[in-house]
Specification:
single chain, alpha+beta, 9-stranded mixed beta barrel, 4 helices, about 25% strand, globular
């Protein structure tokens, strides 16, 4: 598996230059005058093709330290981002070759900092520094109902099982990327946050670098009947002016649990996601989404973030080719059972 340094540019231009949709704190779109005019394909729709990064330090839900503050000041952002940079510099320092070996039973961790690339900055949307990707509900928290909260807790407990590969997360099994970089909704994770967009008249392909997930959007079509329940759902799309709208539902039941950096969320196979891709400058696609899942949430929830153009290529993830973790995890569990001791690894996706 390879990783590369992303070229991240999150600074947006003025609202006049951005054009597109201007969002207030409630997420309500307002048409902008003198809107940015994106390049177009030979068949007349906005050209979204290229490689785009969603790497950011902004989390899905609003952290407790920023409660009540959907928008941060430049000073608050600088303090936060400086601390992130300092942690990265410390974590990237050479290891001491004379250090003592780890104690028995202590988690030695997984990847070192070389492999991590979640970005160092918070997202900027229309000139505002956002404290969370979520913009609705206004408190920046996932609006679980009682059933959804129970499903989340139950799934977390199942993920602690080591009886066989079927109970381990999808990322460990190399079936889909861990987290939700492929979406929907698309959300940032610890590394490999690039997405390549490819268009023709009938399809749009969203190729996520994390675990080579290629989501194929069928343009001008209806959802399949009967449903096929694909890993990333059934995606159909259409254009509303200069915005590509993608609707997805009928998800594979084993992909009900997703994550993004420090947060996880649960969703049913009937979850319905509406994504909006609007190119608001040469270097930025504004990405918006709304999730509706009455089984698990008391209301729909929505988020927004930039996808930033990068000249870096998509690298092969090669998950299966180097997946030594799964036999090691299960072998460790069998050894622990034979020794009569609890087995609880603390590092997994």
């Amino acid at each position: 598996m390879q990783i590369h340094r992303l070229v991240l540019s999150l600074t947006l231009t003025t609202m006049t230059a951005l054009g597109g949709l201007i969002w207030g704190l409630t997420g309500a779109p307002v048409s902008a005058q003198n809107a940015y005019q994106p390049a177009r394909t030979e068949w007349g729709v906005p050209d979204l093709q290229g490689i785009w990064s969603i790497a950011t330090q902004t989390t899905l839900e609003r952290p407790e330290r920023f409660n009540g503050k959907p928008v941060l000041t430049e000073e608050e952002a600088l303090q936060f981002e400086s601390a992130v940079q300092a942690r990265n510099e410390a974590a990237s320092a050479p290891s001491d070759p004379s250090r003592a070996p780890p104690r028995e039973g202590v988690n030695v961790g997984g990847y070192n900092n070389f492999w991590m690339d979640p970005g160092e900055r918070l997202i900027r949307v229309n000139g505002e520094i956002r404290s969370a990707i979520l913009i609705d509900p206004p408190d920046g928290k996932l609006p679980y109902n009682d059933t959804g909260r129970l499903n989340h807790q139950t799934t977390m407990a199942i993920r602690e099982g080591y009886d066989g590969p079927e109970v381990r997360p999808m990322g460990e099994r190399c079936l889909v990327g861990f987290g939700s970089t492929a979406g929907p909704p698309k959300l940032p994770v610890s590394y490999n946050n690039n997405t390549q967009i490819i268009q023709n008249k009938d399809y749009v392909v969203l190729l996520a670098e994390m675990n080579h997930d290629a989501r194929i959007v069928r343009l001008g079509k209806s959802f399949r009947e009967p449903p096929t329940y694909d890993w990333m759902g059934d995606s159909i799309g259409y254009y509303e002016g200069d915005t590509l709208v993608v609707e997805t539902t009928h998800f594979h039941p084993q992909q009900s649990f997703r994550s993004s950096l420090t947060h996880r969320f649960y969703a049913s196979s009937k979850m319905h996601v509406v994504e909006r891709f609007t190119r608001i400058s040469d270097d930025v696609i504004q990405y918006e989404f709304t999730v509706t899942d009455a089984e698990n949430y008391s209301q729909p929830w929505s988020g927004i973030m930039p996808m930033n153009k990068t000249d870096e290529p998509i690298y092969e993830y090669a998950c299966h080719e180097g997946n030594y973790a799964m036999p090691g995890i299960l072998a460790g569990a069998r050894r622990a059972e034979a020794d009569g001791v609890p087995y609880a690894p603390t590092y997994s996706f």
